[in-house]
Task: inverse folding
C-alpha cells in the first residue's frame, strides 16, 4: 500500500481501478467533452487572431484626425441671425493643431505602444500618357512600420522611403505600367507635381487597396499637399487591441481631435467577433455541464454499488469526512484524467483540421494556436468540475447509515 | 479500565417512535460483558439480535437506556467521537461481504489502522502481516479478496477486526456462510485469540454446538433477554 498517499486517495484510486470499464467509459466521455472544448477554443482563437491580423494589418488601431469643420449661422452686428440657412461645409485639408505636443503626450500615455504622424490625401499618379487617382500617405517609416508592417506586404523591391521614393500597390503599378526603379509623377490637388522612383510594390491581398495605395516619405507628402510641418492624422498602435475604443475616447476627451478606433470603424466585424466568442462560451458551458452530469451519474451509481464497502469502512472507524473525500477525489481524478486525454484528442483534431481546412486561395484557414495556458486552464476546470460533480454523490456516501449500508 | 467491557442499562430501541405504527424492537435490556469473556448471542430470526449488535457496535443509537463501552457512556458522544471509539475499541466480523474486493488480504487488514492514522506505514504493514500469520494466511497476503475461499476471507476479516487491538469483537454469524469444517476453523481461531489476547467476543450464532463452546449463552426472544444476561 502506497505510504505517500493519504487513506482517501488510496481508496479512491482503488475504487476507480476496480471498476475499470466504468472508469474508462466516463474518462472517455470527459475526454470527448474536453476535446471539443480544446478544439473549439483553439480553432476560434486561431480564427480570431487571423481575422484580427487581416483587419489590423493594414490600418492603425486608433487614428486621430483634425476636428470636423462646422459652419455657424451668420449673425448681424446686433447678434441677430441674418442668414439662418447653414450648409454643411466642405472639409478642407487641415493639419492637426499642435500635433507634435499631442504626439509627445500620447507616447507617455498608458496602453499606447506606438504613435506615428501621417499626411494623407488624394493625388493623381501619372506615367507617360496614363494617370490614375491614388491615395497617398506620407509616413515616418521608423514608427509607421511598427503600426502597419508595410515591409511584410512588399512583393517586389523594398519598403525604402527616402524623399525620392514611392512604394505603390501592385495594381496601381500595373495600370501605370511601372516597375521597381521606374519613375512616377504625383500631382496634388494644389497642382504641385513631384517625380518619385518606385522603390517597392505592395500586395495587401485586396484589389481595391492595391489599385489605390501609395506610400511616400512624410516630408514628401507634406510638401506636395502644401502642409509644411503639418500632419493630417496621427496613427496609434495600442498594447490591447480590444481596449482601443476606450483609449480613443480618453484621447478625444483630452485633446481637440477626432479619435476613431478600429472597433468603431469595423463595428460589424467587431460585433460578429463578439457574437462568435459568446457562442463559443455558451457551447463550452453546455459541454462542461454534460461532462459534470456524466461524472455525477457514474459516481451516484458507484455509491450504490459500493454501499456495503462504505458500510464496512464506516464500521472499521472510517470517518464521514474520509468517505466524502474518497468520492470527491474520484470525481477530481475522472475530470483530470479525462482532461489529459481530451487535450490530446482536441490537439490531434486541431492539427488534422488545420491541415485539411483551407481557404479558397489555398492559404491556412486559421493559424495553429496551441497554448499551454489553454491546456492548463482546461485541466483545472475539468478537475474542478469533476470535484463539484462528485459533491452530491460524495455527500450521499458520507451520510449513508452504516447499518443500512452493510445490510445492502 | 472498567470491569465490564460492555454494559447495557435498560436499553430500548423502537422505530417510527411517536406514531401509531411504532415498533419496539428491544425492551429494557440489561446486559454486561466482562473483559476477556466469550459470549454467544442466540435467538430466532427477528428477535432483535442484529439490532442489539448494531447498537453495541455504535453503528446505531438506542431509543432509550445507556450503552457503556469500557466505562464510557456513549450517549454523551457526538458522531465523530463515536466513530473514533468504534475504531479503537470495537472490531467487527460480518457474515457476508467480508472484505473490500479492491484490496488484497494484507491491505484489508491494514485498512482500519490506515484509516485511523491517515497514511500507511511500515509498522502498520508489519502488524497486518503478523495478524495474517496468526490466522494462518500469510501465504495469500497479496491475493485480492475475490481470489480467496469463503473460509480464508472470513479469517482475513478476523485479522482485520483485530488490527487496532480492540477490547471487544462483535461477530454477526461469522460462520453462517461457511461449511462445517471452515466454520470450526474460524470458531477455533476466534476462541484462541480470545484466550491468548484476552479480547472479549460477542458472537451472534444459530449454531448451538458452537454456542455451547462459549463462556456463556445469552438468549434474546422478542427483544428481551430471556437467559444469560448476568
Result:
Amino acid at each position: 500500500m502506497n505510504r505517500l498517499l493519504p487513506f482517501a486517495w488510496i481508496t479512491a484510486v482503488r475504487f476507480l481501478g476496480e471498476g475499470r470499464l466504468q472508469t474508462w467509459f466516463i474518462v472517455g466521455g470527459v475526454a470527448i467533452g474536453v476535446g471539443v472544448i480544446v478544439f473549439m477554443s483553439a480553432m476560434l482563437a486561431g480564427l480570431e487572431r487571423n481575422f484580427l491580423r487581416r483587419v489590423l494589418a493594414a490600418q492603425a488601431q486608433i487614428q486621430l484626425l483634425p476636428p470636423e469643420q462646422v459652419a455657424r449661422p451668420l449673425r448681424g452686428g446686433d447678434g441677430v441671425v441674418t442668414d439662418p440657412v447653414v450648409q454643411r461645409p466642405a472639409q478642407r485639408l487641415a493639419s492637426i493643431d499642435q500635433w507634435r505636443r499631442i504626439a509627445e503626450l500620447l507616447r507617455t500615455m498608458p496602453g499606447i505602444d506606438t504613435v506615428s504622424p501621417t499626411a494623407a490625401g488624394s493625388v493623381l499618379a501619372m506615367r507617360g500618357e496614363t494617370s490614375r487617382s491614388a491615395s497617398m500617405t506620407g509616413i515616418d517609416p521608423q514608427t509607421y512600420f511598427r503600426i502597419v508592417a508595410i515591409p511584410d506586404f512588399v512583393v517586389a523591391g523594398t519598403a525604402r522611403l527616402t524623399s525620392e521614393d514611392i512604394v505603390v500597390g501592385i495594381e496601381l503599378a500595373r495600370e501605370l505600367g511601372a516597375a521597381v526603379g521606374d519613375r512616377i509623377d504625383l500631382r496634388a490637388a494644389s497642382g504641385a507635381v513631384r517625380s518619385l522612383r518606385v522603390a517597392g510594390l505592395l500586395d495587401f491581398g485586396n484589389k481595391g487597396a492595391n489599385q489605390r495605395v501609395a506610400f511616400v516619405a512624410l516630408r514628401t507628402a507634406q510638401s506636395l499637399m502644401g502642409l509644411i510641418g503639418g500632419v493630417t492624422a496621427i496613427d496609434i498602435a495600442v498594447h490591447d487591441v480590444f481596449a482601443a475604443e476606450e483609449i480613443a475616447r480618453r484621447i478625444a476627451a483630452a485633446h481637440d481631435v477626432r479619435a476613431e478606433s478600429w472597433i468603431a470603424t469595423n463595428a460589424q466585424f467587431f460585433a460578429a467577433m463578439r457574437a462568435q466568442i459568446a457562442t463559443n462560451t455558451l457551447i463550452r458551458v453546455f459541454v462542461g455541464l454534460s461532462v459534470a452530469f456524466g461524472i455525477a451519474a457514474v459516481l451516484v451509481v458507484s455509491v450504490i454499488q459500493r454501499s456495503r464497502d462504505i458500510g464496512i469502512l464506516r464500521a472499521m472507524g472510517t470517518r464521514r469526512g474520509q468517505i466524502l473525500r474518497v468520492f470527491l477525489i474520484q470525481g477530481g481524478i475522472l475530470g483530470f484524467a479525462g482532461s489529459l486525454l481530451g487535450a490530446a484528442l482536441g490537439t490531434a483534431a486541431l492539427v488534422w483540421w488545420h491541415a485539411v481546412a483551407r481557404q479558397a486561395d489555398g492559404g491556412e484557414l486559421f493559424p495553429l494556436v496551441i497554448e499551454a495556458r489553454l491546456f492548463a486552464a482546461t485541466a483545472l476546470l475539468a478537475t474542478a468540475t469533476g470535484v463539484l460533480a462528485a459533491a452530491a454523490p460524495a455527500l450521499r456516501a458520507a451520510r449513508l447509515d452504516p447499518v443500512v449500508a452493510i445490510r445492502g | 479500565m472498567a470491569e465490564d467491557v460492555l454494559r447495557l442499562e435498560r436499553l430500548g430501541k423502537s422505530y417510527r417512535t411517536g406514531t401509531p405504527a411504532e415498533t419496539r424492537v428491544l425492551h429494557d435490556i440489561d446486559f454486561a460483558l466482562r473483559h476477556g469473556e466469550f459470549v454467544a448471542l442466540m435467538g430466532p430470526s427477528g428477535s432483535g439480535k442484529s439490532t442489539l449488535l448494531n447498537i453495541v457496535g455504535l453503528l446505531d443509537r438506542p431509543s432509550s437506556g445507556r450503552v457503556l463501552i469500557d466505562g464510557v457512556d456513549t450517549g454523551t458522544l457526538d458522531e465523530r467521537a463515536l466513530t473514533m471509539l468504534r475504531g479503537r475499541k470495537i472490531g467487527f466480523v460480518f457474515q457476508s461481504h467480508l472484505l473490500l474486493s479492491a484490496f488484497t488480504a494484507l491491505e484489508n487488514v491494514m485498512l482500519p489502522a490506515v484509516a485511523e492514522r491517515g497514511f500507511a506505514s511500515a509498522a502498520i504493514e508489519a502488524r497486518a502481516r503478523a495478524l495474517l500469520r496468526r490466522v494462518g494466511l500469510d501465504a495469500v497476503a497479496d491475493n485480492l479478496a475475490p481470489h480467496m475461499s469463503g473460509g480464508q476471507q472470513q479469517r482475513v476479516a478476523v485479522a482485520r477486526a483485530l488490527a487496532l487491538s480492540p477490547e471487544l469483537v462483535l461477530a454477526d454469524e461469522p460462520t453462517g456462510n461457511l461449511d462445517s469444517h471452515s466454520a470450526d476453523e474460524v470458531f477455533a481461531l476466534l476462541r484462541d485469540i480470545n484466550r491468548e489476547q484476552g479480547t472479549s467476543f460477542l458472537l451472534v450464532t444459530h449454531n448451538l454446538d458452537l454456542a455451547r463452546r462459549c463462556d456463556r449463552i445469552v438468549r434474546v426472544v422478542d427483544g428481551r433477554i430471556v437467559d444469560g444476561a448476568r
Q: What stands out?
A: The two ends of chain A are 27 Å apart (CA to CA). Chain A has two domains: 7-55+270-407, 88-256. Chain A has a mean pLDDT of 87.
